[in-house]
């Protein structure tokens, strides 16, 4: 009987862990672009990075809110980088 209780407890705990939500991606909208800057003489001058639009309308880089509105941030990036 004791083994059955341990197994049931283990299964219950596993269910809670497996079903937990990923809060890191809830703020993200699936609208992303990849930006980088490349100079033929110097090579990459700005590392490639993915910029996504957050649910609040701000630009997010690697899950971090830039606190700058997405469209404004992309416009600034396009002046100095290539965004696709």
Provide structural commentary:
With 84 residues, this protein is of the alpha+beta class. It has one domain. It contains 2 helices and 5 strands; from the N terminus they run H-E-E-E-E-H-E. A 5-stranded antiparallel sheet has the order 4-3-2-1-5, covered by helices on one side. A hairpin with a 3-residue loop joins strand 2 (43-54) and strand 3 (58-61). It starts with a helix and ends with a strand.
Number of strands: 5
Strand content is 35-45%
- Helices, by number, come to 2
Rg over alpha carbons: 21 Å
The coarse silhouette is: globular
* Head-to-tail CA distance between termini: 61 Å
The biggest beta sheet, please? Answer: 5 strands, antiparallel
Mean pLDDT: 72
Contiguous low-pLDDT stretches (5 residues minimum) are 7-12, 14-23
Could you give the order of the helices and strands? Answer: HEEEEHE
Helix content: 25-40%
Strand order of the largest sheet: 4-3-2-1-5
How many structural domains in the coordinates? 1
Structural class: alpha+beta
Features:
single chain, 84 residues, globular, 33% helix, 5-stranded antiparallel beta sheet, 5 strands, alpha+beta
């Amino acid at each position: 009987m004791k083994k059955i209780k341990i197994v049931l407890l283990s299964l219950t705990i596993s269910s809670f862990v497996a079903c937990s939500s990923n809060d890191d991606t809830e703020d993200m909208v699936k609208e992303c672009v990849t930006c980088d800057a490349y100079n033929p003489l110097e090579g990459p001058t700005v590392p490639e990075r993915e910029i996504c639009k957050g649910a609040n309308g701000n630009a997010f880089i690697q899950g971090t809110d830039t606190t700058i509105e997405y469209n404004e941030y992309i416009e600034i990036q396009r002046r100095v980088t290539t965004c696709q």
